[in-house]
Structures are given as structure tokens and as C-alpha cells.
Recover the amino acids of this structure.
């Protein structure tokens, strides 16, 4: 819930507010120098009233004076997303980047929302797009993008230098003329620009094959050729060859699948020729980035010689079906520059698909040139496949997986006795492990075996692990104490820890933990003396000097057995914190708590906490009682 007492737009005197609004409307006439000449307190009050472009213009000189525009950018975010939206951005650069990221895509593609409608006069301008393009790091490619080859071409030149990652959010039909523009923009960002990360949000294997080819993988196999030729192959080949001949070069799709470079100099075509060719009904398709670049370059502006080829070091496929996985598996064995790989499927991956992926990863890892260290995959059908992936990629330093066990169908994963395997397995460079599990029973021995083999381990996140009846997660804490002295972050979620207090205390006695989170772990469920157990836990936590983040959310530690912070409890905490102020400002996440049950106490508590804490708050509606009921069942 937003504290209206802290909202300058709600509290400002009428005349002051009118003046601020006048400055916003007539900023060009007033001039930035006049604004910068105002007293510092007045400038701080003015910031939330300024437009995005005005904030962007004033930020550098204000920063030189030691003033931050953070409140202005946060004000824009709250205006865009509503007062109940959590704006968890500690610095002005983070808040500014989020504003520009959200608005650039909306304005560039002509999308709209209430905020854009209210501010369209300030946003639908070349100056805003230019200012936003200087801030954003990610470009989301959808259609149409023809403007980047026409009136917005200078913007494309700027995006080349600024964009680090490119997202494809819409399927691209290579049989359409508009597709040529999209491929050209991708070529400029990936090959001429600084972008090294690709995020594919749609299932489009042929475009994935085009993106991967030449930008990492050194091998062009029959599968890629089949995909590149799968749609209108003969038409595209003939048209591309004809286009290449007209342009002065003989390469098109064939050259895209052959050598990467050609020494021929090609005269760039004018756009008018392309348009007239399209109007006459003649096909003019090409998938060759070299030809695309010459085709769309303005007359006299074509690059000298051949175009460079980019390198993709981070690949994220959000809808990874079997066809996309087949394309990836063909490219992986020689994808030496790939550093991070993320694969997500809305359906659980089949065992056979995961085993084929593991085979490709194994081939990649066998090369000393392999750079892959970060792997994320979801959703796996069983946790034993995690072991298969680790064996296939023994150089991984970070692994994130989600597991959802199917209740039917035979398992095809070969079973290997763990005792034999553990004797043969050497140490792993693994530093981060994140496993989310949805299955009836989980093999804890697998996790502890990995931890024992990972002396450099620093971060562990486990969620949803269910052990057989009579088993305890205490062994997990024992292994962490004995084998992982460099552990910095531990996050356990939706697990039963009520019988693990001795092992937890033992871990805390000698550790370097900086972040500890036990979320929904029924921590005190079986404690005979809840108060004594909490006192022992608090004493152990206070003795860890490196600890700066602690979360014990949804463990029902209070006497009323509630998962929520009540207004009266928060007010009491605020009073104690005021009596014993922390050495450093705390960050309190108070989202999803019933503050509206006693808004006066809740508001009073927030007011007392603000001098000592960064508060993350979000509106709560107590009329939705089902959430409360389910949480306290």
C-alpha cells in the first residue's frame, strides 16, 4: 500500500503544484539553466513533475552538483504502473533504465497504454526515442521494423552501439518481403553491433537456424540446410541468386551455407529498385546477411568489403520445442563461444530429447575451446537427468533446472549405481546450483554428492524437495558444513526443516553466509519450545558477521500462527527499531501483508520505519479472504 503522506503530488500546496506543472508544460521556454538555478529543496520537489525527456536532460548537471534524479524516475514508474506496483530500484540508473525499457518498445512500435495516451505529446518524438535508445540494453524485435531502414535509420546506427541483447518475440515468415527487413536489422545488431545475447520467445526453428549459423557454430550440417531450405526453397534460391547477380555478387542462400566471406566488391542497390521489383511481382528473397546489408544500405553507404560476423555468447530459448532443440543440438558441438544457455519448454522435455541434448553438450565440452559455464533448463521429467547433464558438461559453474515428474510412461534414463559413479567422478567447478522440484520423492543423495564434489560452491537454491518418510534434510546442512566453506547464499523453499534445527545451528557456527532464506519451510512446526528454539536461532544468526540478508517468510513463527505481518506487529517492530537503530539502512519487503485491516497503524508504522529502511510495499485487498484462509490452513 502506498503511503500518500510521502507522495509529493498529493501533499504539495496548490500554488506550488501549479508552478511545477507550468514548468513541465513550458520547460523549453523556461530553460534548463533557470531550473538548475532553483534552490536544491525546490528542485527535489519538482523532479516528480517533469517529463522523461526533461529528467534525462537535467540528470547530468544535477549529478555534477551531487543531486540524484531517482525520485523523478520512481515517480514516472508509479505513474505508469500504478501506486501498488513495487518499484524495487535502488539507484537512479536502475530506475531510469526500467522507464526507458518499458516506454521505448511501446512508443517505437506504436503500442499504447493509459500513461502513453496521457503523455503522447512528450513521447511520440524523435528526441524521446533517441534518449531512450541511449539507455536501453535490450531490443525486442517484432514487426514492422521498416522505419529503421528509412526515416529512423540514424536510430539503428545508435542501437548498434548500445544494444547488448536482442529478443525475437514474433514468428518470422521468411517468404515475406517484410522479413528481409527484420533479418537485416538482426544482422546489423548481431554482426555490426555489440549484441551478444539472443532471446527467442517463439518457436521458429528456421529463424533460429539462421541466427546461429556463422555466429558461433563452425559446422553447417544437413539439418540446418534442410531448415534453411524448408520454406519455398527453390523460389528463395533462384530469387536470391538473381538479386545477387543484379547487385554484382553471385552469392545468396548458397553462400550463406558455404564459406563465410567473399572478396567481391558489390555496388549497393537503391531502395527504389527493390520497391519496384516487389511491385512488379518479382521475387526478391535472400537469407545471406552480406546481400541483405548491401540491399538495404542507402546508396553510397554500403560497407566496404565483407560484413563482419558477430559472436553469440548467451542464448535463451523460451519456447524450446523438439524442432528448435534439433537445430540447437546440431550447432552445439562447435558452438565454442557460447557461455550461457537457457532452454525453457512449456511442456516437459522428453527423456530422449534431453539425452540428445546431453550428447551434444558432451561433444562441446570435449573441446578445450568450449566456453559454456552456465546452463539453465526447464522442465525436466526426472531429477536423474540433472546428473546426466552435469556429466555431459563437467565445466559448468552455474546450473539451474526445474523438474516435474511425469506420473506415467517408462523411464528411459539409464540407471548407474551411485557408489561406482562417485568413485570415478572428480571435483566439479560448480559454484551455483538452483533446483526446483515437483515430484513425490527426491533423491537427496544426488544433491549431497554434487555438493561434496564442488569445493568452490557459493550459492544453493532448492525448492519443493520431498524426502521419503523417515528421512531428514539434516544431512544437507551437514554436507554444507563439511564440504562447502565458501557458501555465501542459501535459499531453501517449500521444504520441511522442522527437524533440522541442530544441523542449522551447526552450519551457522562457522560459515561465511551473506544471504539466508528459509521460505515456507515449516521451520518451527515440530519444536517443543517455540520460544527457546527461536532464541537459539536468533543468537546463532547474530553471530554471523557476514550475514546481510535474512528471510524467514511463511514459517508461522508468530504466536497467532499466521504467515502475515499484522499492522499492530509492524508498529511494535518499528518502535523497537527506533530504540535500537541498525548501523546500515535495512531493506524490508512488506509485500502481500494485510495493511488495510488497520490502515492507521500500518501508515504510522511505515512512517516510523522510513528513516531506517527501504520499504517494498504493495497494495493488499482484505476482501480477497481466500488467500488468507489457504495460507493459514
Amino acid at each position: 500500500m502506498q503511503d500518500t503522506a510521502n507522495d509529493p503530488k498529493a501533499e504539495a500546496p496548490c500554488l506550488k503544484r501549479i508552478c511545477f506543472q507550468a514548468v513541465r508544460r513550458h520547460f523549453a521556454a523556461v530553460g534548463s539553466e533557470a531550473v538548475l538555478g532553483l534552490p536544491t529543496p525546490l528542485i527535489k520537489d519538482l523532479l516528480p513533475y517533469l517529463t522523461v525527456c526533461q529528467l534525462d536532460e537535467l540528470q547530468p548537471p544535477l549529478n555534477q552538483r551531487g543531486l540524484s534524479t531517482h525520485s523523478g524516475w520512481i515517480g514516472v514508474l508509479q505513474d505508469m504502473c500504478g501506486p501498488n506496483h513495487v518499484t524495487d530500484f535502488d539507484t537512479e540508473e536502475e530506475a531510469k533504465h526500467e522507464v526507458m525499457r518499458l516506454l521505448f518498445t511501446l512508443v517505437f512500435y506504436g503500442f499504447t497504454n493509459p500513461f502513453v495516451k496521457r503523455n503522447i505529446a512528450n513521447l511520440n518524438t524523435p528526441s524521446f526515442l533517441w534518449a531512450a535508445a541511449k539507455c536501453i540494453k535490450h531490443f525486442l524485435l517484432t514487426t514492422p521494423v521498416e522505419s529503421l531502414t528509412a526515416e529512423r535509420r540514424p536510430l539503428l546506427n545508435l542501437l548498434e552501439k548500445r544494444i547488448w541483447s536482442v529478443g525475437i518475440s514474433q514468428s518470422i515468415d521468411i517468404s515475406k518481403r517484410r522479413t528481409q527487413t527484420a533479418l537485416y536489422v538482426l544482422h546489423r545488431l548481431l554482426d555490426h553491433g555489440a549484441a551478444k545475447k539472443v532471446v527467442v520467445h517463439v518457436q521458429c526453428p528456421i529463424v533460429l537456424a539462421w541466427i546461429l549459423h556463422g555466429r558461433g557454430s563452425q559446422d553447417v550440417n544437413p539439418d540446418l540446410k534442410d531448415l534453411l531450405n524448408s520454406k519455398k526453397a527453390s523460389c528463395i534460391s533462384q530469387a536470391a541468386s538473381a538479386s545477387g547477380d543484379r547487385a554484382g555478387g553471385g552469392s545468396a542462400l548458397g553462400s550463406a551455407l558455404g564459406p563465410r566471406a567473399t572478396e567481391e566488391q558489390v555496388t549497393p542497390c537503391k531502395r527504389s529498385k527493390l520497391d519496384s521489383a516487389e511491385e512488379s511481382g518479382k521475387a526478391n528473397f535472400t537469407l545471406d546477411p552480406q546481400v541483405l546489408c548491401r540491399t538495404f544500405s542507402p546508396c553510397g553507404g554500403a560497407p566496404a568489403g565483407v560484413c563482419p560476423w558477430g559472436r553469440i555468447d548467451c542464448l535463451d530459448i523460451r519456447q524450446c520445442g523438439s524442432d528448435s532443440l534439433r537445430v540447437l543440438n546440431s550447432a552445439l558441438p562447435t558452438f565454442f563461444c557460447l557461455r550461457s544457455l537457457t532452454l525453457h519448454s512449456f511442456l516437459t522435455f522428453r527423456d530422449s530429447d534431453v539425452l540428445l541434448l546431453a550428447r551434444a553438450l558432451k561433444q562441446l565440452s570435449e573441446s578445450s575451446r568450449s566456453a559454456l559455464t552456465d546452463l539453465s533448463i526447464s522442465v525436466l521429467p526426472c531429477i536423474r537427468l540433472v546428473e546426466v547433464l552435469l556429466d555431459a558438461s563437467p565445466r559448468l559453474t552455474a546450473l539451474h533446472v526445474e523438474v516435474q515428474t511425469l506420473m506415467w510412461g517408462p523411464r528411459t534414463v539409464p540407471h548407474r549405481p551411485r557408489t561406482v559413479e562417485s568413485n570415478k567422478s572428480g571435483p566439479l567447478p560448480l559454484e551455483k546450483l538452483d533446483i526446483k522440484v515437483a515430484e513425490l520423492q527426491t533423491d537427496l543423495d544426488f544433491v549431497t554428492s554434487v555438493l561434496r564434489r564442488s569445493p568452490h560452491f557459493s550459492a544453493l537454491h532448492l525448492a519443493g524437495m520431498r524426502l521419503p518418510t523417515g528421512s531428514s534434510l539434516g544431512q544437507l546442512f551437514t554436507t554444507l558444513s563439511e564440504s562447502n566453506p565458501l557458501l555465501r547464499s542459501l535459499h531453501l523453499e517449500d521444504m520441511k526443516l522442522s527437524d533440522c534445527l541442530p544441523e542449522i545451528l551447526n552450519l551457522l557456527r562457522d560459515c561465511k553466509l551473506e544471504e539466508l532464506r528459509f521460505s515456507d519451510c515449516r521451520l518451527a512446526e515440530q519444536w517443543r519450545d517455540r520460544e527457546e528454539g527461536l532464541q537459539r536461532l536468533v543468537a546463532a544468526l547474530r553471530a554471523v558477521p557476514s550475514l546481510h540478508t535474512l528471510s524467514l517468510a511463511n514459517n508461522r513463527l508468530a504466536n497467532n500462527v499466521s504467515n502475515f505481518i499484522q499492522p499492530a506487529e509492524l508498529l511494535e517492530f518499528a518502535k523497537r527499531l527506533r530504540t535500537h537503530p541498525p548501523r546500515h539502512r535495512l531493506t524490508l519487503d512488506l509485500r502481500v501483508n494485510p495493511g488495510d485491516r488497520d490502515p492507521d497503524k500500518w501508515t504510522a508504522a511505515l512512517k516510523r520505519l522510513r528513516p531506517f529502511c527501504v520499504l517494498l510495499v504493495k497494495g493488499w485487498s482484505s476482501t480477497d479472504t481466500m488467500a488468507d484462509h489457504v495460507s493459514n490452513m
Remarks:
- The chain has 30 helices and 14 strands.
